[in-house]
Specification:
Blueprint lengths: L1 H28 L7 E2 L6 H8 L5 E3 L8 E3 L4 H4 L9 H4 L5 E2 L12 H9 L28 H15 L18 H5 L9 H16 L3 H7 L5 H7 L7 H5 L10 H11 L4 H8 L2 H7 L8 H4 L20 H5 L26 H38 L19 E3 L3 H25 L6 H7 L3 H37 L15 H14 L13 H25 L1 H4 L6 H31 L9 H4 L1 E3 H7 L1 H10 L2 H4 E2 L4 H34 L1
Helix pairs in contact: 5-6, 8-9, 13-14, 17-24, 18-19, 18-20, 18-24, 18-29, 22-24, 24-29, 26-27
């Protein structure tokens, strides 16, 4: 019994000794916990793929293995075929600093730094200013050196555009997240070159990709004339999201940059429609950078457009009135026949526009050909006399003051001078505000429009100037007819409609023109004139034509709702053509022909101040208006018109005013000519 107990005790002791020995041995031979391995830009991709390359590799999202898993598997073969195949993992995953990875670290991926670095690393563009990118300070290395320079610039620009887009802004519902990240649109590891089948697949699938966030827009798009062919037949030509909204420079659709970009992008496919749209007031204002007029997306549902003959279309005959009333609340029947994309080259579709356009072109050509030829012949003939000292009138001393000796003859009353000044200012205001819109695609137009205070302010200024012009015009007519009436009533003086004081053309004007042409070619003496010359009469009657053409067409464009009630819609297309072409004619004529007749010909250069002082030297009057001078001497009326020499101060102010108006006119002429040339070449 005792031996048995000793045996059992010995066994227990031996067992305890064995356990203690095994534990001690185990403590000596067990591997120590793995020290963290530092990760840097030299870490090979395959090192990461040792774990992430296994299919199904994932980690639990919670504290236990039973929670849902977060997939960490990377398809190594696909990745090595992507555009990032030579990019080290840590160049994108900038939060990875060691293996095993730190826990409780907010995982981030840095796409922007690398794309910005592409251009920075290029030696040819070492001086390019690199904008600071928020929270992106990781320095990239090992970038591919074989990427072409233009491709590098494009990638860098895309990064800039993205950072300024609505996608890069914080989400309203979750401020800690961005609206859309690079990988939301481009994927994570399987990013292929945008060429060949990869490009086609991305294009076809991009609507579905965008629709992941914009579900309502995707639903409308897939039923539209754009989306249906893409969705059903895989066609590549119809517009997808990025064609209208751009790929990276995406702004809020309610703001001006997006509205302008979308309108411009529509023209990348619909070139003819964009060109005809830009010739309308709607398009001209948009082309200047303002969005308060109708744009493509205002008349064509932006995500659900249909052909014009489709009953679902906003511009279908059954729907167009409602569409127009979105802006023109009182739109009338005339709006139905307005041609929003009419042009002057298609006689079959737009005969009225074609006819009027050709008439205006013929008018412009004939007027400029005749009067520019007249001015050139006059210039060379008078210059020859000037050089020979023939019939030359010296009107000023060397210091610019008028001659002290002699007398002056009254030429214009204060009423005429004030009316001329106000009219000149009104016309120049009309020219700058009007031609800025007419030549909206010129390089100078946006800058001038900004100086004017914007399109809305410029429109108000233009209309104030138009009303001022009309006020002077009709006020002048009232004064003329009132004087004719009172002279006849009070003094029994009947106005001679074709007399020397009348501005109505008469046969003598034709004779004077013929005599002038003979003088041009040295076939006769220089003609002398009466109170009004034939070119002055033309200058006088030009505003009558202008008031009728420019004024009437301007009223139509100013009050379309009213005139649309009884005029066809194409009348507004015609009014737009006439208003612009006639304004161009008036501006160029005034600042070339009229300025030459009054200021630029050798005897008058550089400025004639008679319209600002109201009088001219007697010797000059005898030289130019000998017929009137002889008549006044014969009737004994000359003394009634003789006045003293204008004061030096009045002469100085008159010259300053004259030079100022001429300078403004010449500047406007240069802008108009540049706008016209650019318009022709575009």
């Amino acid at each position: 019994m005792i031996m048995r107990r000793l045996s059992m005790g010995g066994a227990v002791v031996l067992g305890l000794l064995f356990i203690l020995f095994s534990a001690a041995l185990s403590a000596e031979t067990a591997p120590a916990p793995m020290d963290p391995i530092s990760v840097n830009s030299d870490t090979d991709i395959d090192t990461c793929l040792d774990c992430h390359g296994f299919k199904g590799f994932a980690v639990p999202t919670g504290k236990t293995g039973e929670t849902p898993k977060r997939a960490l598997h990377v398809k190594s073969k696909s990745f090595k075929k992507s555009v990032h195949a030579k990019v080290k993992c840590v160049q994108c995953h900038v939060d990875i600093e060691q293996m095993p990875h730190k826990t409780e670290v907010k995982r981030t991926v840095d796409c922007i730094s690398c794309h910005k670095e592409l251009i920075k690393k290029d030696k040819e563009d070492a001086q390019v200013d690199m904008h600071t990118v928020r929270n992106l300070t990781h320095t990239m290395s090992g970038l591919p050196s074989t990427i072409p320079l233009m491709e590098k610039r494009k990638l860098a620009a895309n990064a800039d555009h993205y950072l300024g887009s609505i996608h890069a802004q914080a989400n309203k519902d979750n401020p800690e997240q961005l609206n859309a990240t690079c990988w939301d649109c481009h994927g994570t590891h399987e990013i292929y070159p945008m060429e060949g089948s990869s490009k086609d697949n991305f294009r076809i699938n991009s609507p579905e990709l965008c629709g992941g966030c914009h579900e309502k827009q995707l639903k409308e798009y897939t039923q539209s004339v754009h989306g249906a062919p893409v969705k059903r037949y895989g066609e590549l030509e119809p517009a997808v999201c990025s064609d209208c909204h751009t790929a990276h420079k995406i702004s809020v659709v309610e703001e001006d940059p997006a509205k302008l970009a979308i309108t411009e992008n529509c023209g990348s496919c619909h070139e003819d429609y964009l060109k005809s749209y830009r010739e309308t007031y709607h398009g001209q204002i948009v082309n200047l950078g303002y969005t308060h007029t109708a744009k493509c997306q205002d008349c064509h549902n932006p995500h659900d457009p249909h052909k014009a003959d489709d009953p679902r279309s906003m511009v279908h005959p059954d729907n167009i009135m409602e569409t127009c009333k979105e802006c023109h609340k009182d739109a009338s029947e005339g709006f139905l026949t307005f041609h929003p994309h009419g042009n002057t080259h298609d006689y079959e579709r737009f005969p009225e526009m074609w006819i009027v356009s050709k008439f205006m072109i013929g008018l412009l050509f004939s007027v400029f050909l005749f009067f520019w030829a007249h001015s050139l012949l006059w210039y060379f003939r008078e210059k020859k006399e000037f050089e020979n000292g023939e019939n030359l009138v010296i009107r000023l001393e060397e210091n610019g003051d008028p001659l002290k000796q002699g007398q002056y003859v009254t030429r214009f009353t204060k009423g005429w001078m004030i009316a001329h000044l106000v009219l000149a200012i009104a016309v120049m205001t009309l020219v700058i505000t009007g031609t800025t819109v007419l030549f909206a695609n010129s390089f100078w137009a946006p800058f001038v429009m900004a100086l004017l205070g914007g399109a809305k302010v410029a429109a108000i200024i233009h209309r104030i100037a138009a009303v001022t012009f009309a006020g002077i015009f009709f006020g002048h007519l009232y004064v003329i007819f009132r004087k004719i009436y009172t002279d006849n009533r009070d003094h029994g003086i009947k106005f001679e409609w074709f007399g020397p004081h009348s501005l109505i053309p008469r046969l003598q004007d034709g004779r004077d023109f013929v005599a002038m042409c003979k003088w041009f070619f040295e076939k006769g003496p220089r003609p002398v004139f009466d109170r009004w010359t034939y070119w002055e009469k033309f200058d006088y009657w030009a505003p009558f034509w202008g008031m009728f053409i420019i004024g009437c067409s301007g009223l139509l464009l100013w009050f379309p709702d009213f005139f649309g009630g009884f005029l066809p819609g194409w009348a507004f297309n015609v009014a737009t053509i006439v208003h612009g072409e006639e304004a161009f004619l008036a501006a160029v004529f005034l600042f070339t022909v009229h300025f030459f007749n009054c200021h630029f010909r050798p005897e008058k250069f550089p400025v004639d101040v008679v319209m600002f002082t109201g009088s001219m030297p007697l010797e000059e009057f005898k030289h130019e208006r000998k017929v009137e001078y002889d008549r006044l001497v014969e009737t004994g009326e000359l003394d009634q018109y003789l006045v003293g020499t204008p004061s030096p101060k009045l002469n100085q102010y008159s010259r300053i005013l004259g030079f100022t108006l001429i300078a403004v006119g010449v500047i406007e002429l240069v802008l108009v000519i540049l706008g016209f040339i650019q318009d022709i070449l575009s």
